[in-house]
User: Which sequence fits this backbone?
């Protein structure tokens, strides 16, 4: 069953809208097994949710995304988890990672304006106990997200070659 699960996970990670009958054929299984495995993996917390990737720049919706590096003092007995759990409770926070390097946490924030993000960092994040410093990086343009290139589907025209 482990092989079936791995096959299902690899496929739905790239295409969560696949027809389950089609998925069963693709991985060499039957539809009932696929349905049962998916339900089991959701119940076990292996599958945490399904994501739709949207190119917000094409919608006219104002949206700013920022990556915030956070240096913290780990809490005895809980390490970085206590602060990370607190940060994750904010709806503006779309992701949080423990990372290696000069900073400890990498937080992704979304807001309507640069000011909104800056205010969040300066008034909510930076003053938190155990936060030593932050560095904010605004995303200006996305070229690839979740393995999907964000370029338009129009064909690029070649530049004319002149002698």
Assistant:
């Amino acid at each position: 069953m482990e092989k079936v699960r791995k096959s299902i996970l690899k496929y739905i990670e790239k295409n969560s809208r696949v027809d389950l009958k089609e998925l069963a054929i693709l991985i060499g299984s039957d539809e009932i097994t696929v349905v049962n495995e998916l339900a089991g993996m959701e119940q076990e917390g292996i599958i945490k949710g399904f994501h739709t990737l949207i190119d917000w720049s094409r919608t006219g919706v104002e949206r700013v995304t920022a990556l915030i590096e956070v240096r913290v003092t780990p809490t005895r007995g809980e390490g970085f988890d206590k602060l990370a759990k607190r940060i994750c409770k904010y709806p503006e926070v779309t992701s949080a990672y423990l990372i290696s390097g000069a900073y400890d946490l990498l937080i992704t924030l979304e807001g309507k304006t640069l000011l909104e993000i800056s205010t969040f960092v300066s008034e909510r994040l930076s003053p938190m106990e155990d936060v030593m410093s932050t560095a904010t990086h605004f995303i200006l343009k996305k070229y690839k997200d979740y393995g999907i290139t964000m370029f338009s589907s129009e064909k690029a025209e070649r530049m004319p070659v002149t002698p």
Summary: The chain has two domains: 2-43, 56-142. Residues 2-43 form a domain with the Arc Repressor Mutant, subunit A fold (CATH 1.10.10).
